[in-house]
Amino acid sequence: MSILTRKELMIETKGLSRKFGDFVAVQDLNLWVPKGVIFGFLGPNGSGKSTTVKMLTGILKPSAGDALIDGSSILSSPLEIKQKIGVLPEDLALFDSLTIWEHLSMCGPIYGLTGKETKARAEQLLNYLDLWPDRHTFVEQCSSGMRKKCALAMALIHNPKVVFLDEPFEGIDPVASRSIKDLLLLMAERGVTIFLTSHILEVVERLVHSFAVIVHGEVACSQTMEELSGCTLEDVYFQYVQRRTVEEFEWIG
Amino acid sequence: MDRIKAVLQCQWRAYWRRFRSTGNLSTNNLGLLVILGGIGVVRYLQQLPLAAAQLAKGSTARYETLLLLVFLIWLFPVMGESRRAISSRDLLHFPLSSRELFVIRLSSAFFSPLIWILVALSLALVYPIALARHPLIGIVALLTYLLLALFTSLTISHLLHNAIVRKFLLVALLVLSTAVGLLWLGRTGSAQSLRGILPNRLAAGAAVLPAPFGSLAVLVVVTAAFALLALWTFTLTLQPRQNRRSQKFTLFGLIQLPGRLGGLLKKDLRYSSRLLDLYLALPIVILFNIYLTSDPVPSMVVFAIIIGGLFWPCVGSAFNCFGLDSSLGLDRYTLLPLSGKEKLFSKNLAFATVIITLFVMLLPLTYWKLGPRASVLGLMELIVLVLAYVIYGNWMSVRQPFKMHFYRFTSGGSAVDVMMGMIFGSVPAAVAVYLLYHEDDRAFWKIGLMMLMYLALYFYSLFRYARVLEDHRETIRRALS
Question: By a Cβ cutoff of 8 Å, what residues of chain A touch chain B?
């Protein structure tokens, strides 16, 4: 934090916490993500990654703490923030009974795009993500990968300053995965900040500039890729996250 | 059999868990619904001795009416059921045949206490038959008739899964409404001969006619046909769709609504069009148009009443405006840079669009037969009514949201609140009817004044409940999941 000025920061969380009854999902989270950086937010299932993303994107209210996105507080300026960010949520948050095209043409005007701009951008995004031939398909009829690409296109159509991607590569074929990676790298190069969660450590390792590992709702480690010094991301990850062995399954096979 | 039993046990447990989660008799004024239902039951039971006396004399009019009533009531619980925890398609992963799945489907329809009451009330019709000329044949005919009602409701609920059949059913509803209207105009002749083949007449005929087996045989054949139809349509619902469903060339695909909220409005219009209740307004529109064309001097008061009547089948969309959205859809609303006011306003706009569309169907003939003054007054009454319904609806939608399902009927909310809402919403219609009945020259200004008053109330409701919507988002989301 010391080497970063507040002006360079795009995401800053200050003691962000969320409880569900007695269960603490996220505890006193402090993160700093600079502008134009791809930031990996890693952790095992149930560690609090998605809860954090939900709080940062306004879906969940924090129990305590605050976060600033591009200088605006998630508590006091939620609408201003929503205008600036694009989100690929964990559960995609798509509407039933709308086609891929309808999702995009609905989103554009809400973010202030004209009909012409919406159409042009939607066409370009759908072509890039290989969804154009299926644009008139109802989302509930789409494969999980197609639905995810539709939600991704919705997250990007208004050219957001910050993009939150919750498991963007899960269920995506290798070609689309490569396309998405290229797109994210281009966006970061052009100053867009990307906050992503993923379980695919190999992909994250090749993509992110810095990362944090969250375990049981608390940040266990936060560093840049340069600081790895010879270790792989997987090595660092398993320093903090324990795994079980398979020997106990005597009945299998 | 064990496999069916295992699935049914799980379905039963899940059903009652969901049933209990809705609370006790004090929740959502369920107790009042029970009382009102009880009054209806008492009125029904009071009719039974009268029907019995008529049947003893060989007259079937009252018994036929009761049979028709029972048939219509049977359609609603099956088509409105929403608590089945595991759909038949979800069970396809298990080694169960189509017939086994159908048995599960059929049996699970009887989980609901509402169906138990319905079965008991239907069987109460045995009492009047006991005094008829052929009691045993009459009872067999009654049981067959009840099976016909069950299989018909199952068939329709299965058919509603298919987009093409849905359109066909819509056309059938329009044709049927028109036919009823025309027959009502004609009264006798063909109407009488058509009535002879109606199932309720066949069931009644089996109890009193000198040669009852003809009626019974026809009824049995029709019921068997509907049983097979129910099975066949059920197997169709299990088929995987061959092609991805596309809407490239449908009506909603062609409509492009302007403005920032245009996309959301289009979505909500599509959703509203999938609520079965809405289609109950179409017969009202058709019958009123028939009335306008047939009556040499149509009444403006009737027009004002009909406008009020258009709202009743649409209360679900007004009083539970987030009910057709899923919890994920609500998450998307949260992600979009929209204030609570904009979200509520887009929902209100969708409701208004539906109502205006129905009104437009009345307008050409109204303009022709009742003139421009009546059309303008009607439009003003409509606007006040829309405002009144959404004022109340905004409160209901954020305070008592509940999940509604596509292609099902909905109650619109808890009984007393819906009734209060309908009374509140209908006040402007009552005032308009009063003014028009007394041929008040200043009706135009008085309705205009009322419109301004309701507009002010609407803005208050929009601001107030938009704030509640933001504060209770999690609660609403839970109610929709």
Answer: 57-59, 79, 82-83, 87, 89, 91-99, 102, 105-112, 115, 134, 136-138, 141-142
* A252 Cβ contact list (under 8 Å, min separation 6): none
User: What is the model's pTM?
Assistant: 0.81
C-alpha A146: how far from its chain's center?
A: 17
What residues does A221 pair with on adjacent strands?
A213
Find the helix packing angle between A144-156 and A174-189, rounded to 10°.
10
B chain contacts of residue A142, beta-carbon cutoff 8 Å: 244
Question: Rounded CA gap, B229 and A5, in Å?
Answer: 72
Q: Which chain B residues are within 8 Å of A106, Cβ to Cβ?
A: 262-264, 266-267
**Taking CB atoms and an 8 Å limit, are B271 and A97 in contact across chains?**
yes
Task: Report the C-alpha gap between B180 and B174 in whole angstroms.
Answer: 10
Structure tokens at A19: 């409880």
Whole-angstrom CA distances from B453 to B255, B344, B349, B448, B456 are 33, 20, 19, 9, 5
Contacts of B225 by beta carbon, 8 Å cutoff, 6+ apart = none
Give SS3 for B158: helix
Q: Are strands A210-215 and A38-42 parallel, antiparallel or unpaired?
A: parallel
| B96 in Cβ contact with B7 (< 8 Å) | yes
Cβ-proximal residues to A25 (8 Å cutoff; 6+ apart), any chain: A18, A19, A48, A51, A217
Q: What is the dihedral of CA A100, A102, A106, A108, to 10 degrees?
A: 60
B366's tokens: 């109204």
What are residue A212's DSSP bridge partners? A41, A222
Question: How large is the greatest C-alpha to C-alpha distance in chain B, in angstroms?
Answer: 75
Give the whole-angstrom CA distance, residue B321 versus residue B391. Answer: 12
Q: Are A86 and A168 in contact (CB under 8 A)?
A: no
Closest residue in A to B265 (Cα–Cα): A106
- Residue whose structure tokens are 């004090």: B26
Whether A93 sits inside 8 A of B264 (CB atoms) is no
Token code pair at residue B75? 């359609």
Q: Which residues contact B285 (CB under 8 A, 6 or more apart)?
A: B310, B358, B361, B362
Which two three-digit tokens encode residue B269?
A: 């219009």
Q: How far apart are the C-alpha atoms of A220 and A230, rounded to whole Å? A: 20
* Position B56, amino acid: A
User: CB–CB of B416/B400 below 8 Å?
Assistant: no
A 10 A CB-CB count for A118 gives 21
pLDDT of residue B480: 83
Nearest residue, CB atoms, A97 vs list B248, B262, B270: B270
Exposure string of B407-440, with b = 16+ CB inside 10 Å and e = fewer, is: ebbbbbbbbbbbbebbeebbebbebbbebbeeee
For the stretch B327-374, pLDDT in tens is 899 999 999 999 999 999 999 999 999 999 999 999 999 999 899 988
**Percentage of residues of chain A with pLDDT beyond 90:** 66
Provide CB contacts within 8 A for B179, sequence distance 6+. none
Q: Cα separation of B104 and B230, whole Å?
A: 13
Q: Which of A92, A106, A134 is nearest residue B244 as measured by Cβ atoms?
A: A134
CA–CA separation, A176 and A143 (whole Å):
13
* pLDDT tens digits, A104-162: 999 999 999 998 999 999 999 999 999 999 999 988 889 999 999 999 999 999 999 99
From chain B, pick out residues whose CB is under 8 angstroms from the CB of A99. Answer: 246-247, 253
H-helix or E-strand spanning residue A212: strand A210-215
Coil, helix or strand at residue A74: coil
Task: State both tokens at B393.
Answer: 């609806």
Cα–chain center distance at B422: 15
> Are residues A9 and A33 in contact, defined by beta-carbon separation less than 8 angstroms?
yes
- Rounded Cα gap, residues B324 and B404, in angstroms: 5
